# Entry
Amino acid sequence: VQLQASGGGLVQAGGSLRLSCAASGRAVSNNGMGWFRQAPGAEREFVAGISWRGASPHYADSVKGRFTISRDNAKNTVYLQMNTLKPEDTAVYYCAASLKSFASASAREYRYWGQGTQVTVSS
# Structure
C-alpha cells in the first residue's frame, strides 16, 4: 500500500485546510486509517482516526471540535478537514493505514505511512 498525502500549505490563524490521503496498490477499505503530525523537535502525535466503515472517529483533545476525519472507500481516500487552525497546529501531517479494521491512537499499530504534507499556520 502506498499513501500519498496532499493539501497542506500556509494559512493564517483561524483559517481552514483540507488534507487528503490517497491510497494505491490495494484497497484500504478494510483498514483503520489515522492522521498523525510531527512538529519540529517534537515526537509524532496522533491527531485523528477512523475505522474501516467510517464509524467511531476519534480525535486528540487538542483538535476535537475543530478537525474532522472522513473517508471515501470508493475513492480509497481519507480526508482531514481542519478548521479554526492555530499556530500550534503547525507540523508535518502524515496519514497511516493500520492492518486492523479500527484506528488506534498508537503509531505502533500502523503499518503503512504516507510521506507527509507540511501545514504552517501563521499568527
Q: What stands out?
A: The radius of gyration is 13 Å. The first strand starts at residue 2 and ends at 6. The mean pLDDT is 95.
